[in-house]
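Annex B, item 7. Sequence and structure tokens for protein A, then protein B.
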Amino acid sequence: MEIVVLSDTHAPRRWRSCPPRVAEHLRGADVILHAGDVCVASVLDELAAYAPVHAVKGNNDGPDVAAPETLELTLDGLRIGMIHDSGPAKGRLPRLRRRFPHADLVVFGHSHIPLDESDGGLRIFNPGSPTDRRRQPHGTLGLLTIEGGVLTRAEIIPVT
């Protein structure tokens, strides 16, 4: 299963429509995960034209964004937790383990800082932002591959 992970697209200020380099990856996706701050629901509709979308609500999302604050789902046997804001960097892994005790992977956003970290029992993954890189060298997205309940690839890809 091929998954594209996005966060912090910040439409319409930063995302007027899907950037071509993002669309290249979306075309091959089985599922899209969005970790919040789409800002307007039309982004989720646009993404759904590529693949099924699972999203959580971000702190900048408007009332038209129908998404939960947190989400737990299983994709191809891998247990995934999603939240927009994971809190401060210090203590993040144990805090997310407490919040999602059964997850193999937790996807989050908010900081716009790409991160792929593991403590052996839990992997946490922030794809960064494809459209609002802030102090990062590139806008980014995440690519995940799951095979039989195992995360075989987790990659952060520059798209700007």
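Protein B:
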Amino acid sequence: MMRYIFAVVLATLSITAVQAQRMLPKQNGLEINAGMLSKEISDNYYLNLTLTVNGKNGNYWIWGAEYTHQFSGYRDVQIPLETYTGEVGYSLQLMGDARKTVTLNAGLTAVAGYETINRSEAMLPDGSTILDKDNFVYGTGGRLTLETYLSDRFVLLLQGRTKVLWSTDLKQFRPSAGIGLRFNF
């Protein structure tokens, strides 16, 4: 009888699905993000490549590089404004289910980079001169990320982000929204 009970219990355990562990400490991930800075997505966008390293409890370190492109209008001319930044920070899990299928994370980063105005050309076609200069910029960034696992390795990200940059001749406060995909390896 004991063998029969043991066989039934073993069969029951083997039928249930095995769930993979997610957000393992020291697991790395590579994110690709894209988003918009304003309502005109074709002109004002950002592209971001980020490396994440998981810590404990669904938290992770962030190392990223970002390119931001936007236009500013002056009469009939569209002046390109480009920013190249790197960021380092930490993201904390605020909420999530037990299997970490859906999580809400908040992150804080330090940001440094370089911005160019009109590709470093001070003279406009109508003879006007741009007084603002290209600058090295620094500051801080924040992000609120809703993450959902598509599979055990792929994560879909919806992000609301902001950066506050000093030493800039452009807008100091720069909000954005975007979508991304992370591959955990």
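Comment on protein B: The first strand starts at residue 28 and ends at 36.
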